[in-house]
Amino acid sequence: MAILEQAQVVSYELRDVLFEKGEQLTHVYFPITGMISLLTVLADGTFIEAMTVGYEGMAGLPLFHRVTTERLKGVCQIEGSVYRIPADAFLGIIETSPELSRMLHRYSQFANDAMAQSAACNSIHLIEQRCARWLLLTADAVKSGSFTLTQEFLSQMLAVRRSGVTAAMGTLERQNLIAARYGAVTILDKAGLARISCECYQTIRDRRRDLLS
Fold it and tell me: Rounded to two decimals, what is the model's pTM?
Protein backbone atom coordinates (compact mmCIF):
# COMPACT_ATOMS: atom_id res chain seq x y z
CA MET A 1 0.00 0.00 0.00
CA ALA A 2 1.46 3.36 -1.07
CA ILE A 3 0.66 5.10 2.18
CA LEU A 4 2.67 2.58 4.19
CA GLU A 5 5.65 2.97 1.90
CA GLN A 6 5.80 6.66 2.81
CA ALA A 7 5.06 6.20 6.51
CA GLN A 8 7.37 6.13 9.49
CA VAL A 9 6.26 4.31 12.65
CA VAL A 10 6.71 6.70 15.58
CA SER A 11 5.95 6.08 19.25
CA TYR A 12 4.48 8.78 21.48
CA GLU A 13 4.20 9.00 25.25
CA LEU A 14 1.35 10.42 27.30
CA ARG A 15 0.90 14.17 26.70
CA ASP A 16 3.41 14.39 23.87
CA VAL A 17 2.31 17.20 21.55
CA LEU A 18 1.99 16.28 17.87
CA PHE A 19 1.00 19.75 16.70
CA GLU A 20 -0.14 23.06 18.15
CA LYS A 21 -3.14 25.17 17.23
CA GLY A 22 -2.28 27.43 14.30
CA GLU A 23 0.80 25.48 13.26
CA GLN A 24 1.58 24.46 9.71
CA LEU A 25 0.84 20.77 9.30
CA THR A 26 4.07 19.04 8.38
CA HIS A 27 2.72 15.50 8.88
CA VAL A 28 -0.47 13.50 9.20
CA TYR A 29 -0.91 10.72 11.75
CA PHE A 30 -2.71 7.38 11.60
CA PRO A 31 -2.79 5.70 15.05
CA ILE A 32 -1.77 2.06 15.26
CA THR A 33 -2.12 1.79 19.03
CA GLY A 34 -2.89 4.43 21.64
CA MET A 35 -5.02 7.49 21.06
CA ILE A 36 -4.71 11.15 20.08
CA SER A 37 -6.84 13.94 21.56
CA LEU A 38 -7.77 16.92 19.41
CA LEU A 39 -8.20 19.92 21.69
CA THR A 40 -9.96 23.24 21.25
CA VAL A 41 -7.68 25.83 22.89
CA LEU A 42 -9.02 29.22 24.03
CA ALA A 43 -7.11 32.49 24.29
CA ASP A 44 -6.48 32.06 28.04
CA GLY A 45 -4.98 28.61 27.51
CA THR A 46 -8.06 26.70 28.64
CA PHE A 47 -8.77 23.67 26.49
CA ILE A 48 -11.45 21.04 26.01
CA GLU A 49 -11.35 17.88 23.98
CA ALA A 50 -13.12 18.17 20.63
CA MET A 51 -12.54 14.58 19.50
CA THR A 52 -10.48 11.46 20.09
CA VAL A 53 -8.63 9.72 17.27
CA GLY A 54 -8.00 6.00 17.52
CA TYR A 55 -7.06 3.17 15.19
CA GLU A 56 -9.81 3.99 12.68
CA GLY A 57 -8.90 7.64 12.35
CA MET A 58 -6.43 10.28 11.29
CA ALA A 59 -5.00 13.42 12.87
CA GLY A 60 -4.13 16.27 10.55
CA LEU A 61 -7.38 15.96 8.61
CA PRO A 62 -7.40 19.61 7.41
CA LEU A 63 -4.53 18.69 5.08
CA PHE A 64 -6.84 16.28 3.26
CA HIS A 65 -8.96 19.35 2.41
CA ARG A 66 -5.83 21.25 1.29
CA VAL A 67 -5.84 23.39 4.45
CA THR A 68 -2.26 23.54 5.68
CA THR A 69 -2.83 24.93 9.20
CA GLU A 70 -4.49 23.16 12.10
CA ARG A 71 -7.08 24.89 14.28
CA LEU A 72 -6.88 22.22 17.00
CA LYS A 73 -4.05 21.00 19.20
CA GLY A 74 -3.04 17.35 18.88
CA VAL A 75 -1.87 15.56 22.03
CA CYS A 76 -1.09 11.92 22.72
CA GLN A 77 -3.73 10.89 25.22
CA ILE A 78 -2.85 7.20 25.51
CA GLU A 79 0.70 6.19 24.66
CA GLY A 80 1.20 4.17 21.52
CA SER A 81 2.51 4.23 17.98
CA VAL A 82 1.33 5.93 14.80
CA TYR A 83 2.06 5.95 11.11
CA ARG A 84 3.48 9.44 10.53
CA ILE A 85 3.53 10.63 6.93
CA PRO A 86 5.05 13.88 5.60
CA ALA A 87 2.48 16.34 4.28
CA ASP A 88 3.82 16.44 0.72
CA ALA A 89 3.92 12.65 0.49
CA PHE A 90 0.38 12.39 1.84
CA LEU A 91 -0.98 14.88 -0.71
CA GLY A 92 0.73 12.98 -3.49
CA ILE A 93 -0.77 9.69 -2.35
CA ILE A 94 -4.36 10.90 -2.18
CA GLU A 95 -4.05 12.36 -5.69
CA THR A 96 -3.46 8.84 -7.04
CA SER A 97 -5.64 6.82 -4.65
CA PRO A 98 -9.39 7.29 -5.20
CA GLU A 99 -10.22 4.62 -2.63
CA LEU A 100 -8.21 6.34 0.11
CA SER A 101 -9.83 9.66 -0.80
CA ARG A 102 -13.28 8.07 -0.56
CA MET A 103 -12.46 6.64 2.88
CA LEU A 104 -11.11 9.96 4.14
CA HIS A 105 -14.16 11.84 2.88
CA ARG A 106 -16.30 9.49 4.96
CA TYR A 107 -14.00 9.84 7.95
CA SER A 108 -14.13 13.61 7.62
CA GLN A 109 -17.92 13.47 7.80
CA PHE A 110 -17.72 11.22 10.84
CA ALA A 111 -15.28 13.62 12.54
CA ASN A 112 -17.64 16.56 11.98
CA ASP A 113 -20.60 14.60 13.35
CA ALA A 114 -18.67 13.31 16.37
CA MET A 115 -17.38 16.77 17.30
CA ALA A 116 -20.86 18.27 17.01
CA GLN A 117 -22.33 15.53 19.23
CA SER A 118 -19.55 15.92 21.81
CA ALA A 119 -20.07 19.68 21.93
CA ALA A 120 -23.77 19.18 22.65
CA CYS A 121 -22.97 16.54 25.26
CA ASN A 122 -20.50 18.76 27.10
CA SER A 123 -23.09 21.55 27.21
CA ILE A 124 -26.04 19.56 28.50
CA HIS A 125 -25.35 16.23 30.13
CA LEU A 126 -24.34 15.31 33.67
CA ILE A 127 -20.69 14.73 34.56
CA GLU A 128 -21.34 11.02 35.27
CA GLN A 129 -22.88 10.62 31.82
CA ARG A 130 -20.03 12.48 30.14
CA CYS A 131 -17.40 10.44 31.98
CA ALA A 132 -19.13 7.23 30.92
CA ARG A 133 -19.29 8.41 27.30
CA TRP A 134 -15.60 9.35 27.32
CA LEU A 135 -14.51 6.05 28.85
CA LEU A 136 -16.55 4.04 26.36
CA LEU A 137 -15.31 5.98 23.33
CA THR A 138 -11.74 5.61 24.55
CA ALA A 139 -12.14 1.86 25.01
CA ASP A 140 -13.48 1.62 21.45
CA ALA A 141 -10.67 3.76 20.06
CA VAL A 142 -7.87 1.67 21.59
CA LYS A 143 -9.71 -1.67 21.40
CA SER A 144 -9.10 -2.32 25.09
CA GLY A 145 -11.04 -2.02 28.32
CA SER A 146 -7.91 -0.97 30.24
CA PHE A 147 -5.91 2.17 29.59
CA THR A 148 -3.85 4.83 31.30
CA LEU A 149 -5.77 7.79 32.67
CA THR A 150 -5.53 10.31 35.48
CA GLN A 151 -8.52 12.17 36.88
CA GLU A 152 -6.66 15.44 36.38
CA PHE A 153 -6.32 14.76 32.68
CA LEU A 154 -9.95 13.65 32.34
CA SER A 155 -11.11 16.83 34.08
CA GLN A 156 -9.13 18.84 31.53
CA MET A 157 -10.60 16.87 28.62
CA LEU A 158 -14.15 17.49 29.86
CA ALA A 159 -13.46 21.06 31.10
CA VAL A 160 -14.86 20.38 34.56
CA ARG A 161 -13.39 20.65 38.05
CA ARG A 162 -11.28 17.74 39.18
CA SER A 163 -13.54 17.33 42.22
CA GLY A 164 -16.49 16.74 39.88
CA VAL A 165 -14.60 14.06 37.97
CA THR A 166 -13.47 12.44 41.23
CA ALA A 167 -17.08 12.24 42.42
CA ALA A 168 -18.32 10.92 39.06
CA MET A 169 -15.61 8.26 38.81
CA GLY A 170 -16.32 7.26 42.41
CA THR A 171 -19.98 6.77 41.55
CA LEU A 172 -19.09 4.56 38.59
CA GLU A 173 -16.66 2.57 40.69
CA ARG A 174 -19.15 1.98 43.52
CA GLN A 175 -21.54 0.53 40.93
CA ASN A 176 -18.78 -1.91 39.87
CA LEU A 177 -18.73 -0.48 36.36
CA ILE A 178 -15.06 0.48 36.45
CA ALA A 179 -11.96 -0.07 38.54
CA ALA A 180 -9.84 3.05 38.90
CA ARG A 181 -6.32 3.24 40.28
CA TYR A 182 -3.96 6.18 40.01
CA GLY A 183 -2.94 6.40 36.39
CA ALA A 184 -5.17 3.61 35.07
CA VAL A 185 -8.80 2.64 34.48
CA THR A 186 -10.37 -0.73 33.69
CA ILE A 187 -13.94 -1.05 32.44
CA LEU A 188 -15.57 -3.95 34.28
CA ASP A 189 -19.09 -3.75 32.87
CA LYS A 190 -19.27 -2.12 29.44
CA ALA A 191 -23.01 -2.70 29.01
CA GLY A 192 -23.72 -1.21 32.42
CA LEU A 193 -21.51 1.77 31.68
CA ALA A 194 -23.38 2.29 28.41
CA ARG A 195 -26.65 2.43 30.34
CA ILE A 196 -25.22 5.16 32.58
CA SER A 197 -23.93 7.11 29.59
CA CYS A 198 -26.09 9.61 27.77
CA GLU A 199 -27.39 9.00 24.26
CA CYS A 200 -24.23 10.55 22.79
CA TYR A 201 -22.08 7.42 23.06
CA GLN A 202 -24.52 5.32 21.06
CA THR A 203 -25.11 8.13 18.56
CA ILE A 204 -21.37 8.47 17.86
CA ARG A 205 -20.93 4.70 17.77
CA ASP A 206 -23.79 4.29 15.28
CA ARG A 207 -22.38 7.04 13.10
CA ARG A 208 -18.98 5.35 13.12
CA ARG A 209 -20.58 2.09 12.04
CA ASP A 210 -22.59 3.75 9.26
CA LEU A 211 -19.68 5.71 7.81
CA LEU A 212 -16.56 3.69 8.56
CA SER A 213 -17.61 0.03 8.52
Answer: 0.91
